[in-house]
Amino acid sequence: MALQEDKLLVELHKDRKNNTFSVGDIYLGKVSKILPGLNAAFVDVGYEKDAFLHYLDLGSNINSLNKYTKLAISGKPNMPTMDVFHLEKEIEKTGNITNVLTVNQPVLVQIAKEPISTKGPRITSEISLAGRYLVLVPFSDRISVSQKISSNEEKSRLKRLVQSIRPKNFGVIVRTNSEGKMVADLDADLNSQVNRWYSLTEKLVGAKAPKIILGELNRSSAMLRDLLNESFNNIFVNDSLIYDELKGYIKTIAPDKIDILKIYKGKAPIFENFGIEKQIKSLFGKIVSLKSGSYLIVEHTEAMHVIDVNSGHRMNNDSTQENNALEVNLEAAAEVARQLRLRDMGGIIVVDFIDLNLPANRRMLYDRIKEEMKKDRAKHNILPPSKFGLVQITRQRVRSETNVEIHEKCPACEGTGKIKPSIILIDEIENNLRYLIYEQNEKDLLLRVHPYIGAFLTKGFYSLKMKWSIKYRRWLRIIPSLSYHFLEYKFFNKSGEEIKL
Predict the structure, then answer these.
(1) Cα–chain center distance at 217
(2) Distance CA 215, CA 274 (A)
(3) Which terminus in the chain has less CB density within 10 A, N or C?
(4) Cβ atoms 192, 131 nearer than 8 A
(5) Cβ-Cβ contacts under 8 Å for 29 (sequence gap 6 or more)
(6) Which of 83, 22, 37 is nearest to 220 (CA)?
């Protein structure tokens, strides 16, 4: 699933066929081991490795949850509804897990972080059911409003509305999507989540751990639940089953948006038709090029992710070194924020920007990063640039990083080596051509390429060569060379000297 903003790819998601142990899934687990030293427990939820449950993730109302779970599993006919259920005393924040859980005890838990690498799932017993506008929290009486809603008046209005419709023994978190919504919308969403809770209760009857009790929505529906708003223009789907599923879901959450959902029937693959395939190939490599000619180098280690910002030696000669560095850094800041969303990078990220001497410029860079990161739904924290030009970012990691293999088999060595993606070769040639004309003011340019590439660039009267000549108002000579390998190309000036890029 690809999310585009102004035709730029900003998020890429994969939905597993065996969609288990996803964030939000609710399981009946069994405590397999308690670790007093860590104040935590390992819980068997059916995964090959036990899930990790820390005391701080139990939730203050774990005793009420355990009591309710035990009653539900027993299947007694006089099972109390939530409005008459007697809540147990809340646990202390500084207590010990041995006072709450015992080995082999069944416990209702929710996946907070998917299995990553060699680790099992991270879980919580503070159950929450997310809707489009509200999040339902059983065994609580608190109402909280999203901090992203800036208006205090709107926060107060929403809190009053929710207070008037909140069922007893249910807490509510008011989501950002609820801004400006009327009580009828909030009530319908709240009732939907209450019904899900009672559906969960019915599935607990006679259940034996480990067992999944309530699955989260599939990734495509969850994306629409969290993201769908007035700014969406189109939703294209190339699978009829998913189309029907999303159509039914959109009818329930935003019937006025049903017309933007369309089934894609084009001959070309859907990602190729919308220019997504090319963006994937150019954005998931170790080197990410920027429009100005500068670039990022993205490295991954066990402990952190490191991003290095490079100017590429393409500087504006009319500006000072400080201004050039600031210009590259500001452009890079936007791309760094995009890369974090796109690759879903989590944990610690260190960005090595080009050094800035002026405090005002460092502040401008810091503000730009914070502004660009506002679009990111994952929880994150950003520190100001250090005196070495390093910006440290922590970003919530709840699932494995999105990783796409972009290298292709080398046609010259029959796959014994790897080459950069051929799909972005033409864009790379044009970017270099633009730089040579606009930045270096080259008048007469010669391009030498492999004969296959040369034929592709000159095919037809309105060829790419002709388009570039009209677009940049310079005639470009293209000469095929059998000595070049398939993706090799070089520019030469009017003196026949190679132009190093």
Answers:
(1) 17
(2) 32
(3) N
(4) yes
(5) 43, 44, 45, 51, 106, 107, 108, 109, 123, 209, 210
(6) 22
* Chain-centre distance for alpha carbon 414: 35
Using CA atoms, how far apart are residues 264 and 280, in angstroms rounded to an integer?
20
The single-letter code of the amino acid at 328 is V
Task: Using 50 as the pLDDT threshold, list the residues of the chain that sit under it.
Answer: none
| Residue indicated by tokens 């606009």 | 438
| DSSP SS3 for 434 | helix
Phi, psi dihedrals of residue 63, rounded to the nearest 5°: -65, -40
Q: What is the dihedral of CA 101, 102, 104, 109, to 10 degrees?
A: 10
Paired residues of 351 in beta bridges: 307, 391
From 60, 210, 29, 186, select the one nearest 123 (Cα to Cα): 29
- DSSP string spanning 78-108? TPPPTTTPPPPPPPPTT--GGGT--TT-EEE
Which structure tokens are listed for 346? 């989590």
Strand, helix or coil at 335? helix
Contact 51, 41 (CB under 8 A): no
* Cβ–Cβ < 8 Å for 225, 217: yes
- Rounded Cα distance, 316 and 325, in Å: 10
Task: Choose among 25, 89, 21, 98: nearest CA to 55.
Answer: 98
Instruction: Please name which of 212, 261, 236 lies closest in space to residue 45, comparing C-alpha atoms.
Output: 212
Output the CA–CA distances (angstroms, integers) from residue 312 to 287, 308, 316, in the order listed: 12, 12, 12
Q: Which helix (H) or strand (E) holds 145?
A: strand 143-145
> How far apart, in whole angstroms, are the C-alpha atoms of residue 291 and residue 311?
11
**Cα 42 to Cα 51: distance, rounded to the nearest angstrom:** 6
Cα gap 125→122, rounded to integer Å: 11
Q: 350 is written with which tokens?
A: 């260190």
Task: Identify the residue whose tokens are 């250090």.
Answer: 386
